[in-house]
Design brief:
Strand content: 25-35%
CATH class of the largest domain: Alpha Beta
Helix content: 25-40%
Shape: elongated
Number of helices: 3
Oligomer: single chain
CATH architecture of the largest domain: Roll
Strand order of the largest sheet: 5-4-3-7-6
């Protein structure tokens, strides 16, 4: 049985779009490349053919992975999130004691995490430490650079 994958409704929709793109567009492009590579002759010594077959395998692997995520997806219902404590789907504002600044993160499942967009996984060090905590709580996070100290300033949805 697959591990549950937590997704926001938007994240689920984005994965569905990516899957459709891979199945419709990418598969067609690879099929055309395979056809063209075969025209170079003997496929046993055809580097172009080997490269395209590797690309095809990568695309099929990604399709399989996305299908598995969608099958085991648990949608985070943002309307029912309890903001009295940090939960999946919450947006939190933290005060970073080391850098003396506020940072805001949305806590999402691993499939949607994108630190460049301030979307962190519930399994990341900060996400894991914050889950279940309340506004005003201090959390200590083990990071690759050592321990970091944060205070939860706000918990909200969106």
């Amino acid at each position: 049985m697959s591990k549950e994958v937590y997704l926001t409704p938007k994240g689920y929709e984005e994965l569905e779009k990516k899957l459709e793109y891979l199945k419709v567009i990418c598969r067609r492009e690879v099929a055309e490349k395979i056809k063209a590579a075969r025209e170079f002759g003997d496929i046993s010594e055809n580097a172009e053919y080997d490269t395209v077959k590797e690309e095809q395998a990568m695309i099929e692997g990604e399709i399989y992975e996305i299908e598995q995520k969608l099958k085991s997806a648990k949608i985070i219902n943002e309307e029912n999130i309890d903001t009295s404590e940090v939960n999946l789907g919450c947006t939190i504002t933290l005060f970073d004691f080391e850098y003396k600044e506020e940072i805001t993160y949305k806590i999402v499942g691993t499939a949607e995490a994108d630190p460049s967009k301030n979307m962190i996984s519930n399994e990341s060090p900060v996400g894991k430490a914050a889950l279940g905590k309340h506004k005003g709580d201090i959390i200590i996070v083990d990071t690759p650079g050592g321990k970091s100290k944060f205070q939860i300033l706000d918990i909200r949805v969106k």
